[in-house]
Amino acid sequence: MEKILICFLFIFFISIQQIDSLLIFRHFNIQISNQLAGNKQLMINCRSGKQQATKVDFLPFNTVWTLKFTVFPKTLIWCNVWMGPNYVHHAKFNAFIGKESFIHDICGGRKPNICFWQAQEDGIYVRNNAAGTFKLMYKWDSTNIKKL
Predict the structure, then answer these.
(1) Which of 70, 78, 96, 125 is most buried per CB count within 10 Å?
(2) Most distant CA pair in the chain: distance in Å?
(3) Nearest-CA neighbor of 139 among 93, 74, 85, 77?
(4) Helix (H, G, I), strand (E, B) or coil at 127
(5) Which residues contact 92 (CB under 8 A, 6 or more apart)?
(6) How far apart are CA 71 and CA 111, in angstroms?
(7) What is the average per-residue pLDDT within 105-110?
(8) Sheet of 42-48: strands edge to edge?
(9) Domain boundaries defined on the chain
(10) Could you tell me if 35 and 120 are in contact, meaning their C-beta atoms sit under 8 angstroms apart?
């Protein structure tokens, strides 16, 4: 009986590695690109559930910030971004939701395993990986934040 159980577990784990549709425990990336005009910096801060937020990063023009993670049930990562130089314009958005519908409809699929966001002058865009096109998802709103 023990040998049968070991064989079953071995075959099960091998088959899981072969199933491309399995989302849980898959490695994924969020990337945010700064394409703001005039060499403006982008201030980024993201967080996942009850975990500690990422450090605040200042992203120079034409560079990419990356967050690597493993997908678990109910994974949710949201980000706050502010447009420099005065950081008055702000956007808050769900950068990743661990559901096939979000990955397919928003990120455009899992190949590659990246949900790619881009900050532009009029707002935050997401790239559809399959089509290679960008769609405006969030417009900047003005906030009253204290000087840093």
Answers:
(1) 96
(2) 69
(3) 93
(4) strand
(5) 78, 79, 80, 81, 138
(6) 15
(7) 82
(8) 57-59, 42-48, 76-83, 89-97, 141-142
(9) 24-142
(10) yes
Question: How many other C-beta atoms can be found within 10 angstroms of the C-beta atom of residue 88?
Answer: 14
The string of DSSP letters for 45-67 reads EEEETTSPPPPPEEEPTT-EEEE
CB 131 within 8 A of CB 82: no
Q: Is 124 exposed, middle or buried (0-12, 13-18, 19+ CB in 10 A)?
A: buried
pLDDT tens across 25-63, in order?
A: 788 899 999 999 999 999 999 998 777 678 899 999 999
Which one, of 64, 51, 45, lies nearest residue 114 by Cα?
A: 64
What order do you get walking across the sheet with 27-34 strand by strand? 64-70, 27-34, 114-120, 123-128, 133-139
Half-sphere exposure of 25 (CA within 13 A, CB side): 6
Q: Please tell me the class of the 24-142 domain.
A: mainly beta
- Cα–Cα–Cα angle for 64, 79, 68, nearest 5°? 55
The stretches of 31-108 forming alpha helices (DSSP H) are 100-102
